[in-house]
Amino acid sequence: MEKNNVILIGLDGLGLDEIGEWIADGTLSTLSYFHEKSAAELMSTHPPWTPCAWPSLLSGRNPGKHGVFDFYTREDYDKRLIERPDVDSPYLFDVVDQSDLTPIVINYPVTHPVSELDHGALVPGYLAREDAEFHPGDIRGQYEEQYGEYKIYPDYGTDDDTIEEYVSVAKQRRDMAEFLDDLFDWDLMAVQFQVTDSIFHDLDDRNKIREILTKVDEFAGDIIELGEDDPTVFIVSDHGMGDYDWTFYVNSWLAEHGYCESKEGEPQYFRQQKEGVLKGKDQSDPGLIETAISTGVNTVSKVGISPRRVHRALDIVGAAEYVERILPEDALVAAQNQVVDHSNSEAFQLYFNSLGVHLNVEGRDSEGVVPQDDYEDVRSELMKELREVRDPDGNLAFDDVCPREEVYEGPHLEDAPDIALFPRDYQYDVSGSILDTFRRYSHKNHKPNGILLTNRSLNSIDQAQIYDIAPTIAAVLGIPIDTQTDGKVLTPQTEEVEEADWNEIAGDYTNTQADGDTSSVEDRLADLGYME
């Protein structure tokens, strides 16, 4: 089968901070080869989270245009996990399909429920249910007859062989690519590996991480070989990964400063976290120390000291995490089940970790309390106070605190948080949970700087934007670039590039219905710490 096409390999969460040494020494031989050809830093969206970054990469549009700012979309004060119909922009592969070219798309996040392409195939990825349908509808059955079960998610925190679990799931992406390569004469082969992000959240052992990434690198090389006659290759990550030192509980801070009120709420995510903490650990009767701590917490709670203050006291003496491991379920839930009382709050972080604060505005929000005439004054004062927040070590928590219109633009600007938060060096989680203002928590999480590797010459740049990938691939394929793109073409072009509105080309690109119950997906997010 003659090929001269484009291959897009997506590697979630990889940046040079964590894998640079393995590219430099050739451990990741495929990435090392393309890094020597052409490479640039690829800057992510704000926030640099998977569910808003990949839609931006695939559409070339900022979240203010496609409408996704977090794992969740807002329905008044309620939240639900995002799905493809929530992304108000066509994807690159929708336009490829409607240009009478054939896309193969495997495992990209927020592609569920799948679009009904006229050509090619679509296998959904992250945030889809495990039993999500593929397109065409018989693809999954045909694949599984030949290769066995196809899994979207690994078993996080498995007690079995962790390396084997992650490698097995990654291998299925390679196997699916080979399977679909036999069925379609494709023009775009786009394959995404999500495990490259998950392993940094789930594993502490660098040797295990390196071993898994070495296999993913091998699988990426196998996929690239499917292109045969020197295809154009882009290897991209949606964001980087690195060290975090703290969790800043912004709603707790807002409560302490009079902007936010709390009430008792649904504890299900904390219940999930405790189950994850205790997985594989001895849960036999606690010893004398455990009993003493448990009794003490229960006693002070009964005499009117709030659970949050109890947790703060324990955290000061270094016992909070230990207590969370041994307290009875009810005691843990009681200590962590406060939620925002929206009807009595001026401001809050609505989502779990959107790096943004919403104001509760009269006439705009159903239970708004901030008069519209006071909106700018309240927002300006709140931003001023947030810029001065310092962690317990005395360091400023934020590099910048901005009004949303300085970060986003487009028809969905009104859906964005009113205030955008940029943590200092991205060393702070900003959690919507109500627990304590700061908690020291060393772990890995997302950084805004991903990577772009290619075998094509790049215009003279050291840094690209995530929005540049879609128009660049469109130009290479010879289809129009989007007039609404926020990106630019990164590769030199010998001919003038045509432009057109992708909305008009793609037509009804969300001709799907919602997937229904997403509780199993939320459980998986909780396992990785996204629901804290």
Annotate the secondary structure layout:
Blueprint: E1 6-11, H1 16-24, H2 29-37, E2 38-43, H3 50-59, H4 63-66, E3 72-75, E4 78-81, H5 92-98, E5 103-108, E6 121-124, H6 139-147, H7 162-183, E7 188-193, H8 195-202, H9 206-225, E8 232-236, E9 240-249, H10 250-256, E10 262-264, H11 268-278, H12 288-302, H13 307-316, H14 320-326, H15 329-335, E11 338-340, E12 347-348, E13 356-359, H16 375-387, E14 398-403, E15 419-423, E16 428-431, E17 438-447, E18 449-454, E19 463-465, H17 469-477, E20 481-482, E21 499-500, H18 502-506, H19 519-527
Helix pairs in contact: 7-9
What descriptive keywords fit this protein?
532 residues; 3 domains; Gyrase A, domain 2; Alkaline Phosphatase, subunit A; 19% strand; alpha/beta; eight-stranded mixed beta sheet
Question: Beta fraction of the residues?
Answer: 15-25%
The helix content, as a percent range, equals: 25-40%
The CATH C-level name of the largest domain is: Alpha Beta
In the residues, how many domains can be counted? Answer: 3
The total of beta strands comes to 21
Q: For the record, what is the CATH homologous superfamily label of the largest domain?
A: Alkaline Phosphatase, subunit A
**Sheet with most strands: strand arrangement:** 6-5-7-1-8-18-2-19
Major sheet attributes: 8 strands, mixed
Query: Which overall shape is indicated by the principal axes computed on the Cα atoms?
Result: globular
Helix/strand/pairing category: alpha/beta
CATH architecture of the largest domain: 3-Layer(aba) Sandwich
Low-confidence region ranges: 268-286, 300-305
- Rg is 24 Å
Q: State the distance separating the first and last CA atoms.
A: 49 Å
CATH fold-level topology of the largest domain: Alkaline Phosphatase, subunit A
**How many H/I helical runs?**
19
Mean of residue pLDDT values: 87
